[in-house]
């Protein structure tokens, strides 16, 4: 069945015009004026609304064992939440522990999504050790359509790699032409600072950020840049939170390192005072790297507007406040790190970015969709509106007024870090490959119709 979207204001990373879009057999079949649909097919009037390419979240955790517990969402709840918020493609971090076999882990992560996810999905393959068997297994995973790796420079003895493993991963990535995404924090500095703070009786969630200050992240970025420069590998720094970290990456870019920067929506909307709330409420806002002071938030918005920061993701990692965050009461190092935000990223970025004049519509689409598609081998199938592209479309109503609340969310966590926040605009129609999945904030599509996206080698366009 075809779908005709009439009279919408089509906005991509580069274009802005009013036209009709005909979706047929999963693709964008025609773009023009006064188009007609075959008899019996749906026609949606998008007059006065934007039509954006489906948004891509390049950094989510859905199935994840971490800090003695599991992330709360599964692909059923997470994909519905993503779609209600306008995100039509997820790139999940496949993160086995150091003790797990990479191929077995990849098959496990795939099994958690296949036939369950209602939006399209793919993965970054976590490299959490590099022994004599790792290279052959990673080559097999790349052959299966995964063209990005993930390394952690933190979480020693669980996810973290040592310098030999980091070098070998980057060297292989350079040979294969894949991107290495990286969590950049110096694990030794973190461990030492944590122990000092706990010894002083500083045990509450408000001490999480002081245990991982901006210098810890900036040093991690600098460390990664040295290895990327030595190997020639392309790298993507995830969840960048502060000015010194960005400056370390930009210095390397000036030397010729192929580096792209991501930030995440919590850093653009929340600040460190949220994690300093009393009665353990601050635990709701514990993530790593931590949420920073307002000065860094302002710097991030400017870096996003200029394109220095290329993408806005979520680092969605949901844990219940009541049963899971409580594990760290009396010891902040045991609070599961992560926030739920997969459902609200697009609306928050539009409301507090576009509507507040911090970014324009083109940068909005570019940062939330197009740049991720280009970097991770999905463009032009995803990330734009063009003939032959997948018909992943978001008709967006800029007149909508509402508030975020846990009571109405699709995410499985028992709280929302943006509870009560105003939003000005939301998707009125969301399609995945031409099929309507969401209408006026309600999921009404086919559960489990999401497809695994085997990817091509990524672009180096920034």
UniProtKB/TrEMBL annotation:
The modification N6-carboxylysine is found at residue 150. Keywords: Hydrolase, Metal-binding. CDD domains: D-HYD. The keyword Hydrolase applies. Residues 50-415 form the Amidohydrolase-related domain. One of its GO terms (cellular component) is cytosol. Its EC number is 3.5.2.-. SUPFAM superfamilies: Composite domain of metallo-dependent hydrolases, Metallo-dependent hydrolases. One of its GO terms (molecular function) is metal ion binding. NCBIfam families: D-hydantoinase (TIGR02033). This is D-hydantoinase. It comes from Aeoliella mucimassa.
């Amino acid at each position: 069945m075809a779908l005709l979207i009439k009279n919408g204001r089509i906005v991509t990373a580069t274009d802005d015009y009013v036209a009709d879009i005909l979706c047929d057999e999963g693709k964008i079949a025609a773009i023009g004026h006064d188009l007609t649909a075959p008899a019996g097919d749906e026609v949606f009037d998008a007059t006065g609304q934007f039509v954006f390419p489906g948004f891509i979240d390049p950094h989510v955790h859905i199935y994840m064992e971490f800090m003695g517990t599991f992330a709360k969402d599964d692909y059923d709840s997470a994909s519905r939440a993503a779609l209600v918020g306008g995100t039509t493609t997820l790139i999940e971090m496949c993160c086995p522990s150091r003790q797990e076999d990479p191929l077995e882990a990849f098959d496990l992560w795939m099994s958690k999504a296949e036939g369950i996810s209602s939006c399209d999905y793919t993965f970054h393959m976590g490299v959490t050790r590099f022994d004599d068997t790792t290279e052959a297994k990673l080559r097999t995973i790349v052959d299966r359509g995964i063209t990005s790796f993930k390394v952690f420079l933190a979480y020693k003895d669980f996810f973290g790699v040592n310098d030999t493993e980091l070098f070998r991963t980057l060297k292989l990535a350079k040979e294969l032409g894949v991107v290495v995404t990286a969590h950049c924090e110096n694990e030794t500095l973190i461990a030492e600072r944590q122990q000092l703070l706990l010894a002083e009786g500083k045990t509450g969630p408000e001490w999480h950020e002081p245990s991982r200050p901006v210098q810890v992240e900036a040093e991690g970025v600098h460390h990664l840049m040295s290895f990327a420069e030595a190997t020639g590998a392309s790298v993507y720094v995830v969840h960048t939170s502060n000015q010194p970290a960005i400056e370390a990456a930009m210095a390397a870019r000036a030397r010729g390192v192929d580096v792209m920067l991501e930030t995440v929506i919590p850093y653009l909307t929340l600040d460190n005072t949220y994690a300093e709330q009393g009665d353990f409420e601050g635990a709701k806002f514990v993530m790593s790297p931590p949420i920073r002071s307002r000065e860094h938030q302002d710097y991030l918005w400017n870096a996003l507007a200029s394109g220095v920061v290329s993408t806005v993701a979520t680092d969605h990692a949901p844990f219940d406040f009541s049963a899971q965050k409580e594990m760290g009461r009396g010891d902040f190092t045991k609070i599961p790190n992560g926030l739920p935000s997969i459902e609200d990223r697009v609306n928050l970025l539009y409301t507090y970015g576009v509507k507040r004049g911090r970014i324009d519509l083109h940068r909005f689409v570019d940062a939330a969709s197009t740049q991720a598609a280009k970097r991770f081998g999905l463009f032009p199938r995803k990330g734009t509106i063009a003939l032959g592209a997948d018909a992943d479309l978001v008709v967006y109503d800029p007149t909508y007024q509402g508030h975020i609340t846990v009571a109405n969310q699709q995410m499985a966590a028992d709280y929302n870090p943006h509870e009560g926040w105003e939003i000005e605009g939301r998707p009125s129609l969301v399609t995945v490959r031409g099929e309507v999945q969401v209408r006026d904030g309600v999921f009404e599509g086919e559960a489990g119709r999401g497809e695994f996206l085997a990817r091509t080698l990524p672009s180096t366009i920034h």
